[in-house]
Sequence to fold (499 residues):
Amino acid sequence: MSAALTFDDWRAKAEKLSYRNQCFIDGQFVPAASGRTFDCVSPVDGRVLTQVARGDQEDVDRAVRAARKAFDSGVWSGMAPRERKRVLLRFADLIAEHATELALLETLDMGKPIADSTSIDVPATVNCIRYYAEAIDKVYDEVAPTSQDVVALILREPVGVVGAVVPWNFPMLMAAWKLGPALATGNSVVLKPAEQSPLTALRLAELAAAAGIPDGVLNVVPGFGEEAGQAIGRHMDVDAVAFTGSTEVGKYFMRYSGESNLKRVSLECGGKTPHIVLPDAHDLDVAAKNAAFGIFFNQGEVCNAGSRLLVHESIKEPFLEKVMEWGRKMAPGNPLDPATTMGAMVDEKQMQRVLGYIEKGKSAGATLKMGGGRALSETGGYYIEPTIFDDVANDMVIAREEIFGPVLSTLTFKNEDEAIRVANDTIYGLAAAIWTTDINKAMKAARGLKAGSVWVNCFDGGDITTPFGGFKQSGFGRDKSLHAMDKFTDLKTVWIELH
Ligand code: NAP
Ligand code: MG
Fold:
């Protein structure tokens, strides 16, 4: 349906959109206890969309109390898995029914192209919730192989109250990656969306309630990281925190846990993904297109963005030309235009941060081949040109730090061993990619690259059936696949002696 909407259609719909802007606690929208709000700004044009409740410790307390009460009552945690499945499938259906509205909220709130919100974010969110709904009445507990006079059960139980703290780059999908497995396994959840992108999370909570998720099982507290986020991290009655965001803030959550109740923490953090291209790639045009999309998709605001392009020195010049050709096609445009492939940076601060990194690249001696500046400033929005650096050394700041913007660093290598060594020379380990037709080189790289995902002859491959997460300082714990349920369940041994 929405694929057929024009730029004008989307603009007209945007004018009529209404926003949920309060905390969602115990099945109801309520203002922050303090009465405070913050501006929710659209990076499309810098306009304030609405004032959102600025939740803090008191609101987190209220949400955790509601979540605990619901959990202890068994209204959800004790429900037969096939019943939870039914409710979660209805939740997924409601998200699909509201696809146009949710895609528009996402695009206005964080600036990604409407073509992506409709074709990627919403369908992937629906698919994620459906996957865990359908899985939950098909997973079994275990019976241990003990002697005959004992029955030992290994039960998997929900941990209880889960805090989910998520970022702004895929606001709805990152929330779904936590909500799907956490809710399916019977937990109650307190979700804190990023301050830059609270709108879809609040609408999701309402749809969850309409689907029949009982009051208190899913609560959403919008607000700032240092306030609502920290309150979740330090709460004595939150059993687990599932976090997606920067490595810096991930480390805070480890500290919060240690200084409070030793809650379980899982962290999906940043990355500096190496994208390796060998001369024997089956199709260098396809590889070049992937190199461009790998860094410019979602304005480069992707944890696994292929931000370090490692090209064999023998093909660097022609290959980089092809990447630039694709980059030129991705010049930013109005996110509400269905033809736009690159939208706005999430906010002015992020735009300035990325522009600052571009300056650091130039002053370190890297060659700016393309882009490097702000675009479309007359709109009032926060756009950056697709930017490509050549002659980057792996010890430059632009090769070491996560920029989280449309900025590609190009490096060369002489042989595969050097490529793998440079690829691994980073604090991060979220993902890596290699293009080669030689199965021996591909497997050697797949084993040698220290990353949670390795893509061979593709970029950003995977679906809901495959685990996603990091090695090293990209974090620990996995989203997606059945393994994601491990974060939200605990094993209990019941040892029964027979007499
Ligand atoms: P961020 O600054 O780390 O924020 C993530 C979340 O943590 C937000 O909800 C934020 O709230 C909250 N937060 C910030 N400071 C906090 C504090 N002191 N205590 C408690 N909570 C706090 O990350 P971001 O800028 O939103 O997102 C970009 C990052 O996410 C990148 O590093 C990216 O790589 C990572 N990411 C990783 C994955 C993955 O799966 N590995 C996926 C997507 C994104 P506020 O917004 O209110 O500050
Ligand atoms: Mg916003």
